[in-house]
Amino acid sequence: MAPDQVMALVSSVGESLVLVLLVRRKVWRTLPFFCMYIAWALASDVTSSLILTRWTEGSEIFHRYYLAELTLDSLLQFLVLVELAWSILRPVRKSLPRSTVYLIALMIAIAGGVIWPLAGKTVPPNFGPNSTLLFHLQGTFSILRVVFFLVLSACSQLLSIGWRDRELQVATGLGFYSIVSLITSVMHTHAANTDLYHVLDQTQAASYLCTLSYWVFSFSTKEQERKEFSPQMRQLLLQIGGGVRANRVALTEIHSKRSTEKD
Questions:
Q1: Which residues, given as ranges, of the chain have pLDDT below 50?
Q2: Are the C-beta atoms of residues 136 and 121 closer than 8 Å to each other?
């Protein structure tokens, strides 16, 4: 069996172990989209292996499959980031307006829009239009995951989360894999031959195996009870939530007043 096939097999086994632990620890109750993401990763990896037994990576059929797979993968990644941010707010979630989760999604989407032109600089110049789009999309989400991890780590004390909290464990795994992906992407632009390309691809695959190993270790242990926010942080979040609610009420009143005036 070729080394690439061995790594693909080990990756599928790792994803299966992570999925089993997520179900066993009932993580799906708090992080359902992350559980869906791992299940999707396992299914897509198995499907890719089956497709490659009949068609090559350069075939049109595989390219169409990869485009569809990457599109859905990117959507799930976006939902996972929104879910992690919303889950972190659990201690004060009942006091926040329901629209807060949509505000979080909007902020992450705006961050992705800002990152998009920066990610274009990591695309190798010799790629065709279709490959450039795929590579650009991957680079955007890699940078977005790294930024999310760095912000979460920097604010961990304020948010009262630690390395035994599921949110930070998930973000750490995603952050590590994304950092390696970014490094290999940049090196791809300077790769002089196909052999180096292959080594970089194997390095990226190895980093994913490290992430899966970390998640297996993390989810094997029981999650610690979530700490409450500090009084200062709780007050700040409630003030933000109150401001959002007040703006929504004000807009509703203005709309009702205009409707009454027209009548």
A1: 244-258, 260
A2: no
Buried b (16+ CB within 10 A) or exposed e, 36-65: ebbbbbbebbeeeeebeeeeeeeeeebeeb
Could you state, in order of their start, the residue ranges of all structural domains in the chain? 3-220, 230-263
CB atoms within 10 A of CB 112: 19
Task: Output the pTM of the full model.
Answer: 0.84
DSSP 122: G
Per residue, the 3-state secondary structure of 172-210, as one string, reads HHHHHHHHHHHHHHHHHCCCCCHHHHHHHHHHHHHHHHH
Q: Is 101 exposed, middle or buried (0-12, 13-18, 19+ CB in 10 A)?
A: middle
**What whole-number distance in Å separates Cα of residue 220 and Cα of residue 214?**
10
Length of the chain: 263
DSSP 10-62: HHHHHHHHHHHHHHHTTGGGT-HHHHHHHHHHHHHHHHHHHHHTTS-TTSHHH
Tell me which amino acid residue 68 is. Answer: A
Nearest to 66, CA basis, from 52, 54, 84, 48 = 48
Nearest to 116 by CA among 89, 149, 93, 143: 143
The pLDDT, as a whole number, for residue 246 is 42
Candidates 11, 2, 9; CA nearest to 204 is 11
Q: Is 173 left (phi over 0), alpha (psi -120 to 50) or beta?
A: alpha
Tell me, what amino acid is at 144? L
Q: What pLDDT does residue 34 have?
A: 97
pLDDT at 188: 72
d(C-alpha 31, C-alpha 21), whole Å: 13
Element (H, E) at 9: helix 3-24
CATH of domain 3-220: 1.20.1070
